[in-house]
Amino acid sequence: MSPHIDLRLLRYFIAVAEEGHLTKAAQRIGIQQPPLSQQIRVLEKELGVTLFNRMPRGMELTESGVALLADARAILAQVDATVAGVRRIAQGKMGRIAVGFTESASLHPFVHSVIRAFRAAAPDVALTVEESNTTELVEALRQKQLDLAFVRSPVGNATGLVMQTMLVEDMMAALPAGHALVAGRRRQHIALNELAGEPFIMTRRPSGPGLYDTIIAACRAAGFSPHVSHESRKNLSTLSLVAAGLGVAVIPASMTRVNLEGVCYLKLTGAEDLKAPLHLAYREGEVSGAVGLMREEAARLADQ
């Protein structure tokens, strides 16, 4: 078959073949009968064969026409499927997406809700997830190993990335359950400056530089410089050290969902600026279908 044949001619041919009559086929596809007859002759000329026997009351396929009909249907079905697939990719309904999140973000119900909403809207998209720290997630975005990431505040150069703030949550104090500041009391709050003489356990700065610096700055604003006695790679490790009685910690409120025996969580007072933002990070200018769809779902849920 000539590679220059207009697919429209094949559609006209199929209509005439299925209807067996030029007038009926013309009505079906919404054109006049004379132009349709002319287009069929154009197709026959392109192919160099006769596709129909013109009968007094209709059109009858020749042997060549019968052979073409099956192939024409297959060709157009493939074209239609390809077009539909491309459109679904553009709409975010097909393709792939790689999403990252920090350990603390993974515990926040907002992140769970976004993933569920995206999966419901695009069940055919291949979704992969990765948990890491903010610094590594930002680098993975730069290297195009991830498409989106839920991160805390990054420190350093974020050129080429968009940090879209989804929410801002409070920070809370985590103390050993038997600590003198909580033992025998039914307290729910503690002032940040009450922790001035306590050993601090913090997630090491390279893992989450934004929160690390925020905590240090808040302590200094409250009148003291915290004594950091231990550093851990992950927040869960930080809480384990608190449970072991090695010190106190300041954590995002979502981390209190970890019901760890031996840890007491208290709301902080006297530190109004001590907050933990959650950002949706992605490369600037990239609006591929699946990325755009997840951004839309995240923005929708953030506004609720």
Number of strands: 12
The number of helical elements comes to 10
Report the sheet with the most strands, covering strand number, pairing sense and barrel closure.
Answer: 8 strands, mixed
Share in β-strands: 15-25%
Which architecture of the largest domain does the CATH hierarchy give at level 2? Answer: 3-Layer(aba) Sandwich
The global form is: rod-shaped
Q: Provide the number of structural domains.
A: 3
The CA-CA distance between the termini, in Å, is 57 Å
Structural class: alpha/beta
Low-confidence stretches: none
Residue share in helix: 40-55%
The CATH H-level superfamily of the largest domain is Periplasmic binding protein-like II
User: Radius of gyration over alpha carbons?
Assistant: 32 Å
Mean pLDDT across residues: 87
Short description:
By secondary structure, this protein is of the alpha/beta class. Helix content is 41%, strand content 24%.
Features:
D-Maltodextrin-Binding Protein, domain 2, two-stranded antiparallel ribbon, Arc Repressor Mutant, subunit A, 3 domains, 10 helices, rod-shaped, alpha/beta, 304 residues
Structure report:
There is one protein chain. The protein is of the alpha/beta class. It has three domains: 7-90, Winged helix-like DNA-binding domain superfamily/Winged helix DNA-binding domain (Arc Repressor Mutant, subunit A, Orthogonal Bundle), CATH 1.10.10; 96-166 and 277-302, Periplasmic binding protein-like II (D-Maltodextrin-Binding Protein, domain 2), CATH 3.40.190.10; 170-275, Periplasmic binding protein-like II (D-Maltodextrin-Binding Protein, domain 2). The protein has ten helices and twelve strands. Strand 1 and strand 2 (58-61) form a beta hairpin. It is rod-shaped and about 105 Å long. It starts with 6 loop residues before the first helix and ends with a helix. InterPro entries: BudR_PBP2, LysR_HTH_N, LysR_subst-bd, WH-like_DNA-bd_sf, WH_DNA-bd_sf. Keywords: DNA-binding, Transcription, Transcription regulation. It comes from Herbaspirillum chlorophenolicum. This is LysR family transcriptional regulator. Belongs to the LysR transcriptional regulatory family.
